[in-house]
Sequence to fold (750 residues):
Amino acid sequence: MLMTVLAVYGGACAGPVARPPEALRMDTGFIQEYAETWGFTAGQPTGMAVTPGGDAVLFLRSGPRDVIRNLYEIDTATGEVRGLARAADILASGEEPLSDEEKARRERMREVGRGFTWFKLSEDGGKVLTGLGGRLYVINRADGRVLPLRESAAGPAMDAKFSPDGRYVSCVRGHDVYVIDLSTLEERAVTVGGTEDVSHGVAEFVAQEEMHRHTGYWWSGDSQWIAFEECDQREVETLYIADARNPEQPPRGWRYPRAGRTNATVRLGVVPIKWEGTEPPAPRWLDWDRERYPYLAAVHWGKDAPLTFYVQSRDQRAAVLFRADPTSGELTELLKETDSAWINIVPDMPRWLAGGREFLWMSERSGEWELELRDRDGRLKRVYRPGEARLYGVSTVHSESREVVIFGAIDPTETHLYRISLDSGEVAKLTDGAGSHEGKFARDGGVWVHKESLIDGTVRHTVRGRDSRAMFEVPSVAIDPPHAVNLELTRVEADGRSYHAVIIRPREFDRSRKYPVILYVYGGPGHPVVTASARAYLRQQWFADLGFIVVSVDGRGTPRRGRAWERATAWNLINLPLEDQVAALAALGRRYREMDLSRVGTYGWSFGGYFAAMAACRRPDMFHAAVAGAPMIDWEDYDTHYTERYMGLPQENPEGYRVCSVLTYASQLQRPLLLIHGTTDDNVYFVHTLKMAEALFRAGRPHDVLVLAGFTHMVPEPEVSMRLYERIARYFMTHLMEHRPMAAATAASN
Fold:
């Protein structure tokens, strides 16, 4: 359900006179199909896993116009596809029930699918673990038999895993960790006493949202022990979210640590899965300087891996990797990272090699990401880089052959796969073609699935051999987009810097015309938007075909350009990004005369929404209309781990927080601004947009607000998604199209 609030509170707004709605007709056929196919991704295979021996590839797939996924298997010898499990066959009652906790967990993982949204293979590849509606199922691959695990009065199951030996399944129920013996189906709690305030086995909010750690417990390699996080949130502020459409329902409280305020207190314990008596023994708590390093950033345990965990200081400028003896609790410091700005966490590090005598580690202490080989005690043995390419991350490690597959590229708009020998250092590039490439590999690397999304619009999943020879494609039932994207990737020089940019022109582009420009922006840390993948720009092409040129630029603060480029925005998240976008737009306008820089709009979501709101307030000379979706308005209302990483604590950087708050500039707004926000957003809370609307009202500045009633930070519902982008397009058509009398805007501002 949508509610539109037109806020016109007095005061002149420097913008063109709006045209009556009947004059703003548009073809919404494409954006409707885009929404109903989830961006033409519904029906594509996803969640790929290759069996350890490479005999099969398992994947999830929905229909072409839904996100209800079923589980399939493809034989790598014959290419034959068979269904392993259908959600509808198991959910005889129909709708899949989801607890509030599971909904929140999926929100953190940006998961919009239903049916089977996950599965896990046993270590030998013979069994598959999956779940529906909080109930777990084990599927025998050999005969397809589905074994339902018992439901429990303790609550629905979350975060389920096989033990390394495949004899047990673990999960979190309520606020404790449980283990199920698959031979007897008996289940018992291995932690006790967990509550909503002091939970066991559940990652806290900032771990899930900002550290990308979505689990709170870990198996030992011998399947005899479990390490778990205890999360004490009693001192964390509670923020309440009410459903205004159903006022009879009480608000739901969520623990949310705002910048500068109290975080959850976490510690790491170890418990056995077997014991004498009825109650589990007390955990062995691992004792590190939790006051100096309060963040538990990553934990790794399992086959061939000793228990290791990575902790981070509150200011995120120091971090330590420890190896732990789970029986004695003794800790060994393996390495320490420091950075004068902040340390980026790599969640899947370290990667231990066979035998647990060496591990791989990623560090950017040299100014560029490098892959390090270290011995069991942390001593550096060798450093690897993929030739001239930049390292982005590790795809897989083949311990027996002592090879690692990494992803990276020379051009930051692309992603490629490279195989590196840990002994010789030899590098072999596995992928070709401008675009984004990913891989899922069998244990020995002999078979792998190659996902590619290319600049020509191609998207496919190909099963390949070690030599990268194509064997066959994993079948998709997705609908293909009805047309290609008219894009140009380029680089532009401005103020002594080179920026990567993408330009989307109308498919029926007329070079003799001048077009209004829309800047689609993110502009913040961790997320580049300029990519050599045409599928990333289908929605932008729709905007372009309405009569715009759409542009995106990656400025300072974005990754894949080295440490100095990324850390340039430390302590101030807006000044340099805003400067870069304006400089790059001006340079593009000088190069491409078809761009009319007297009619520029900008829109984005989340940090992009923040940027759009700032652009409208601070740079009316460049931006003539803006749409801000789910914007962070005041950084003191956003979470600790993200905000303090880039801005420091509010107590230490009060001027930075003032300069970076959109509220500081609300009274300066001269351009049309549309604020959009979901009322139940538990990431960027609705309070951000409410505060901005109030500040604009008090300052007498007209603005528009679109309320997405009952929606969170994501807007996955097709009808609402379609209407949302139709609304954004009409906003820009109203305020930027060339038939608007621009002289009136100038007069209004004087």
